[in-house]
What does this fold into?
Amino acid sequence: MEKLRYLDLFAGAGGLSEGFIRAGYMPVSHVEMDTAACYTVKTRLAYRWLREHGKGQIYDSYLNDQITRDRFYSEVPAKVLDSVFNYEISWKNIEEIFEKIDKNLKGKKIDLIVGGPPCQAYSLIGRARDEKGMLGDGRNYLYKLYGEFLKRYRPKYFVFENVLGLLSAKDTDEQLHFDKMRALFKACGYKTEYRQLNAADYGALQNRQRIILIGKLNEIKDFYPVIQQVERKYLVREIFADLPALQAGEGNIRPVQTQDYQGEYLYEAGIKQANHQMVTFHSARPNTDQDKEIYRIAVTLWNTEHKRLSYVDLPEHLRTQNNTDSFLDRFKVVASDIDCSQTVVAHVAKDGHYFIHPDIQQNRSLTPRELARLQTFPDDFYFESVSGKPSRTTAFKQIGNAVPVCLAERVAKALLRVW
It folds into this structure.
């Protein structure tokens, strides 16, 4: 049976795509405006091609900085990399994007479209921080462009992912964007149904609530597939179990050896492979003495009383920010003794205060690899920058914006069962 072909819009670093590939689908094209994320997707596609053709050592050479990115890319057919389009999806360039996708299709059809527009305009935090509450923000209307892809390619299904704030975000006329969105998709020929899903119920050790809206062409009702949940039987400590201990400012972006792992979770979630014991981006950002003093207080409070630190409870000499009315949980431990962490967010690219390591001896914020594991990215997944020189900050941003791979895979497999 030929694999089902899909198009990934607003692809980011490819978390959603990774899940669909794992489930057996074939990507036709990825469209993403962030240049670094496009390189990440290209590198992942190149990795897969090389592994499938018995040339995995070339990928290892690249990760170890023995060959350049250009040399690495030259080892795979151009068509593998040419399926990634670095475009901001807009009315100005949509026809050009169509032409490139059509060229990749070679007369075949697209079975599925996946992806969701950037969530900042819909998110509750984004609206709270914007003086206009994101009213009129252009990102609110990217779903209209999504509709153009539906009209052109007429896939049997589409999968649209976004934040819970989508359900309450209003347009300038006080109508809900979500209602307008579903009306547009209906006009394009698609009935839509949605569920509020938590990645913690599908294999991630992370509390990440998302709206997964699925559309089906010419369907009337009750078509939403049953997405099988998994038992929450592991604790967050599994994420850290085999990673070398680090102090703030220590670590390596290049591959490092993991320690002996006797657990099951990392294998079950597809994060760790039995024959792959190396990880990249296990590099901790440096922290100031003040940060580390606050981190010790936060970790001690959790370990001794199972309480979260409120900013207003810090000693006065550690309270250097004026805002004492909101975001009082800005310093938060990723507790290892519960079954899911707080939601991984892109703000971690700016600071790691919301993601403090639970080991008081390490006294630091999480590394990109630890956060990538919370997002269930496999350990052999590499996060690119624009220049090709590894960037911890760029990796943080891509990881925070991603869809957890295990959630994507569960959705993908559920669709296959009803196809």
About this structure: The chain has two domains: 5-228+402-418, 236-388.
